[in-house]
Amino acid sequence: MVQPNSQTLLLLPGDGIGPEVTAEARRVAEIVAPDLALEDGLLGGASYDAHGEPMTAATLARAKECDAILMGAVGGPKWDNVPRDKRPEAGLLGMRKGLDVYANLRPAYCFPALAAASALRTELVEGLDILIVRELTSGVYFGQPKMIETVGGERRAVDTQSYTTGEIRRVAARAFELARGRKRTSGKFPGVLSCEKSNVMETGVLWREEVTRLHKEQYSDVRLDHMLADAAAMHLVKAPKDINVLLADNLFGDILSDEASMLTGSIGMLPSASLGEPGVPGLYEPVHGSAPDIAGKGLANPCAAILSLEMALRWSLNRPEAADRVWKAVDAALSSGARTADLGGNLTTRQMTDAILKHL
Ligand code: NAD
Fold first, then answer.
1. How confident is the model at residue 71 (pLDDT cuts 50, 70, 90)?
2. What is the pLDDT of residue 5?
């Protein structure tokens, strides 16, 4: 029986391995937050199949009323040929835009037990703890015009990169505040490292100017460094531990955070949070996609979904003790040798969660 004043977590499992990993996060939530009301909804291909839309207005309206939303993943070959605005990914973008969750937080944390599983040498990633803050609701994924047209017998494609000062400042403010809370003193870039391409892009020039201005006005106690996004891509594999909080726009943040994910062992380990203004429910989701190649086989690593729940407990539901319990249980399970196939082990999705539950 749901108490009228209790908090609600909306689960949107989505497609492919989404439902498999979200079911495991639900098992964890039922133990660490038994009073939390858990609701289910459809998003992505699952919603398209049921309603002809990848996200219905009713789902978005319900999401806005909940305290937090935990998504699985969307997409898959089944929907490759549906019109672009009906594709599963349109549901995901619609949810992010509809909630206006403009700051995407992607921690790239290397659990000690997984240091040897990284694509880099162990000493480069041992102790790695980067927080990537990616702008999520503007930039080239949303800018207009966006089209493919035929000009003079040739096809021509256009995407538009556009940022306003307000869009830059609000996400930069989040990054500065998060860097303040992380109190790092080591590494070459212990505060915020802001990345753009101000050498060739006007949006990059504006980005650098606005981040610098905001820093001077309100956050001069936090160290600020700038780096071109391509140089940052190199630095991430050369000396990743130099970086504390990395701030980037939607496109560069997408690429740099995927690169950073490979430093930590597996994309199956990486959670994310998308936050808007205070009072807006946070959107939590694994960084990985729907992994059609392993869907339905019980091979998916549930850690990214479980750690996304951990972020929801911490950032939206104000339950830091429960979040700490989840974090420590994942750490302990990994230390005891529990591994799914992506981490070089042979546990199924459910067995990996069992190993985590043992430590709760
Ligand atoms: P993907 O992340 O789904 O898979 C990439 C590789 O990582 C695959 O080999 C997959 O098996 C593996 N992998 C991913 N998650 C894993 C996990 N939890 N455990 C073990 N292995 C895991 O990316 P993709 O293959 O490029 O995309 C597949 C579909 O997912 C596409 O339709 C894409 O559009 C969609 N996608 C959705 C999201 C999202 O919902 N946020 C993000 C990325 C891609």
1. very high
2. 60
Inform me whether the pLDDT recorded for 64 exceeds 60. Answer: yes
Ligand 1 touching residue 285 (CB < 6 A) = yes
> Is the CB of residue 118 less than 8 Å from the CB of residue 259?
no
Residues of the chain with CATH 3.40.718.10: 1-102+276-360, 103-266
Q: pLDDT per residue over 234-260, tens digit each?
A: 999 999 999 999 999 999 999 999 898
What's the pTM value of the predicted model, to 2 decimals?
0.91
Q: Where are the alpha helices (DSSP H) in 111-266?
A: 122-125, 165-182, 202-218, 229-238, 250-261
What ligand 1 atom has the least distance to the C-alpha of 341? 20
Answer yes or no: are the C-beta atoms of 99 and 41 closer than 8 Å.
no
Contacts with 84 (C-beta within 8 Å, 6 or more apart), sequence order:
90
| Number of helical (H) and strand (E) elements in the chain, helices listed first | 12, 12
Q: How high is the pLDDT of residue 183?
A: 82
CATH 3.40.718.10 for domain 103-266:
yes
- From the list 130, 135, 136, 132, the residue with the least C-alpha distance to 110 is 130
pLDDT at res. 264: 83
To the nearest 10°, report the CA torsion of 334, 336, 341, 346: -160
pLDDT score of 57 more than 70 = yes
CB of 89 sitting under 6 A from ligand 1: yes
Please indicate whether residue 254 is annotated as part of the active site: yes
How many CA atoms lie less than 13 Å away from 9 in the CB half-sphere? Answer: 30
d(CA 339, ligand 1 centre) in Å: 18
1-102+276-360 CATH choice from 3.40.50.2300, 3.40.718.10, 3.90.600.10, 3.30.70.270:
3.40.718.10
The response to whether residue 263 sits with its C-beta less than 6 Å from ligand 1 reads: no
Q: Which of 48, 102, 109, 141 is catalytic?
A: 141
